[in-house]
Amino acid sequence: MEKAFVIAVDGPGGAGKGELTKRLAKEFGFTLLDSGAIYRVLAYAARQAGLAMFDEDSLVQEANVLSLSFKVEDDGVHVLLGKEDVTKAIRTEENGINASKVAAHPLVRTALLERQRAFRQEPGLVADGRDMGTVVFPDAQVKIFLDASPEVRATRRQKQLEAAGKEADYEQILKEITERDERDRNRPVAPLKPAEDALLLDSTNMSIEEVFETACQYIRTKM
Ligand code: DC
């Protein structure tokens, strides 16, 4: 039997995956998996438990008992750790950096694999991450790799922070983005890279509407 349809969208942070995958899930009526949120919740829970981000064994144990769920509300998808709503708390820069460190451990990734695959159900799934098309759903019917220059990604992040009334230093953001990219691209297991059969989209000079239209056209050729 044919497996449920998966649209795998990978790429570095700030390339626009979040907005694109949200729109795609709505367009096709599919479930949305934000796999980065899983690594972020694990980093957050580990921090609360006083674990070090280099302690792979303890992180695996934490991953195995992680009580994580997603809840669709009027204002978007909420992320829960047990009963605690951590939607906002996991989005800090510091927790993003910790998530990237946690995600670099091979055994942590293995521990979270089946949890992610369980989201593949009818009528279909849009999966947002770094290794959706390469490792988690290697047989996804559609694979898209969305990239953008580090400078453009830093500018977008700066605007997001400013819009939220937070302080945003462009040089600092660019430095953090570059360091996180390095770690995500160079880790030995499931590094950030396009699947061989992925459509490469560079959003540096594209609006979100253009990215969305291009992606939709491509997806329809695969359905
Ligand atoms: O997409 P994000 O910024 O929420 O992801 C946070 C970190 O989690 C990112 O730096 C790398 C890691 N990650 C990963 O290794 N694999 C995924 N599929 C998704 C995220």
Automatic annotation (TrEMBL):
Source species, domain of life: Bacteria
CDD domains: CMPK (cd02020)
EC number from the UniProt entry: 2.7.4.25
Enzyme class: transferase
Catalytic activity: dCMP + ATP = dCDP + ADP; CMP + ATP = CDP + ADP
Chief site of localization: cytoplasm
Localization terms from the record: Cytoplasm
NCBIfam families hit by this protein: cmk
The name this protein goes by in its record: Cytidylate kinase
Species of provenance: Candidatus Anaerobiospirillum pullistercoris
Gene transcribed to yield this protein: cmk
